[in-house]
Automatic annotation (TrEMBL):
It comes from the Bacteria. Residues 30-46 have a biased composition (Low complexity). The keyword Zinc does not apply. This is ABC-type glycine betaine transport system substrate-binding domain-containing protein. It is found in: Cell membrane. Residues 1-22 form the signal peptide. Its main location: membrane. InterPro entries: ABC_Gly_betaine_transp_sub-bd (IPR007210).
């Protein structure tokens, strides 16, 4: 009887001790379980916040200088309209090549989408490369060349201009160029030296004036030699051919076109910097936009606005992660 009572007492003590141990183990497990999800959730939230955090506008006033060439005009106005939607006050400003680079370098302008590198505008890159940043290469091929109407069947290469007295007399030995500060003009002067075209005179004007002369020549089926490049809207509406350049005076495919910004833009206007870094461009896109402005004579702002309205998914890609106002 005494033994049974003692056994029961010991058994009860062991049972109680086991329950206490189990409870302590449960508390430890609950503590670990409660800590782990909270920590994981906190880490996930931090990661998500870092990845999806909207970039702020910074300063509100932006200036985009551009040279009055076809692609540069439509692209500059398009980017300007998108930046206005983001919340900036934007001035799209037509200038010549030298002042364009100088203004971006000294901060009176913020960025330009008109940088033809590495060869066409090499002199400006060499001069200002410590004050600017090449942010985004938008088109990887931008050939430049002397160009003629396709009906000039005997002229296929720059070499065909050398000592070509018959053609030279018809044209008064004139090559019709654009603004004097353009890279294609300096490259054409180089080509004149390399190909021995000393009889030929490179005349500077403007892109618009050059195209007017080109149109007139084609309408009357007369010869003409002009400085041209791609992408350009004239190739979509006129039958033209770029002359072969066996000496490589124009640099093969012409290099590429980039957005170049002032060194301080990322700090001064983070959202604008992110936008120009995310901006994408295709030849198909540009070749659709250019004729609307230059062949149909539409307002580039209205053309840009219509493109924005018609391509909301593309605009979303360009402005992803940007805080708008």
């Amino acid at each position: 009887m005494m033994w049974n009572k003692r056994c029961l007492t010991e058994l009860a003590f062991i049972l109680m001790f086991s329950i206490v141990l189990a409870a302590c183990g449960a508390d430890d497990n609950n503590t670990n379980a409660s800590e782990s999800p909270e920590n994981n959730e906190s880490q996930n939230e931090n990661t998500e916040t870092d990845e999806n955090k909207d970039v702020e506008l910074g300063k509100k006033e932006l200036t985009i200088p551009y040279v009055a060439w076809a692609r540069e005009t439509v692209v500059s106005y398009l980017m300007g309209e998108v930046l206005k939607d983001i919340g900036y006050n934007v001035e799209v400003k037509q200038v010549e090549t030298g002042p364009m680079w100088a203004s971006v370098a000294d901060g009176t302008a913020d960025f330009t989408a008109s940088a033809w590198l590495p060869k066409s505008q090499k002199q400006y890159w060499d001069q200002y490369k410590n004050q600017v940043e090449e942010v985004n290469q938008t088109l990887d091929k931008a050939p430049l060349a002397l160009t003629v109407p396709s009906y000039m069947e005997d002229i296929d290469s720059v070499e065909d201009l050398k000592d070509n007295t018959e053609l030279g007399k018809k044209l008064n030995w004139k090559i019709t160029g654009i603004d004097s500060g353009a890279g294609i003009m300096s490259l054409t002067k180089k080509a004149i030296d390399q190909y021995g075209l000393e009889q030929w005179d490179l005349r500077h004007s403007s892109e618009a004036a050059m195209i007017t002369e080109l149109k007139s020549a084609i309408e009357n089926k007369k010869p003409i030699v002009v400085t041209l490049w791609k992408p350009h809207w004239t190739f979509g509406v006129m039958d033209l051919k770029m002359l072969n350049d066996p000496k490589g005076s124009y640099g093969g495919n012409g290099g590429h076109i980039s957005i170049v910004a002032n060194k301080n833009l990322e700090d001064d206007a983070p959202a604008a910097y992110k936008f120009i870094n995310q901006y994408t461009e295709s030849y198909e896109m540009i070749e659709k936009l250019m004729p609307k402005v230059f062949a149909e004579d539409k307002d580039p702002k209205k053309v840009a606005r219509q493109f924005i309205n018609d391509n909301p998914e593309l605009i979303d890609e360009w402005t992803k992660g940007i805080q708008t106002e």
